[in-house]
Amino acid sequence: MRKKLKLGVLASGSGTNLAAILESSANNKIDAEVKIVISDVPAAKALERAKNFKVPTAVHERKSYPTKEAYETAIVADLKKHDVELVCLAGYMRIVGKEFLGAFPDRIINIHPALLPSFPGLEAQKQAFEYGVKISGCTVHFVDEKTDHGPIILQASVPVLDDDTVDSLRERILKQEHRIYSEAIQLYAEGLLKIDGRRVKIF
Ligand code: GRF
User: How many angstroms separate the first and last alpha carbons of the chain?
Assistant: First the structure.
């Protein structure tokens, strides 16, 4: 069997994407294992989900550190302690700074609930719904210094139906997020992704 890629997951909220990754790993659908889950929110449900899978957790609140650099240095130390090879942001609600990016160059990925470059930032599903698009979706991408901007690994499209609400659209997009996040991790684990400028080539 292939050596398992060591993942670190950062999550600020509910953690359904984390749960999907944990399940894919437990069912051997991905050659990867989550070594640590880190949250900036002590009450995040994601931490509970990690504990259910017996995965170590850590909490680092931004307010506990004098600077963003110090905060990120602490996170990076935890990730390194667990020999993390790929960092997965899964509903992590903070902008990744220089400290963090420099420690994991081209080794941080994120999931965004819209077809980038449309609707970056917060409440992407609401932005898409209110704009009136007929198709939205989700994007897994490498993280760079700009928000929701790095090279795109995978996208999935999701139709916006006439009787949708923001919530029903969010749910339909979330199902695709759970699917493509694991797919992207597996591509990375197999060494099949190559960044070529803005483009990620899949071999
Ligand atoms: C997802 O929609 C993800 O795309 C966005 O934040 C949400 C997190 O959901 N970045 P969950 O915590 O994984 O349930």
Answer: 20
Mutate which of 177, 180, 182 for ligand 1 pocket (most atoms within 8 A of beta carbon): 177
- Domain identity same for 38 and 61: yes
Interval 2-45: pLDDT, tens = 799 999 999 999 999 999 999 999 999 999 999 999 999 999 99
Same domain? For 170 and 197 the reply is yes
Which residue is closest in CA terms to ligand 1's atom 8? 91
Q: Give yes or no: 60 in active site.
A: no
Beta bridge partners of 195: 200
Name the pTM for this structure.
0.97
Residue 111 alpha carbon to ligand 1 centre in Å: 7
Boundary (domain end) residue, out of 74, 105, 136: 105
* Segments forming the whole domain that contains residue 164: 110-203
How many separate domains does the chain show? 2
Check which CATH number belongs to the domain holding 59 and give it: 3.40.50.170
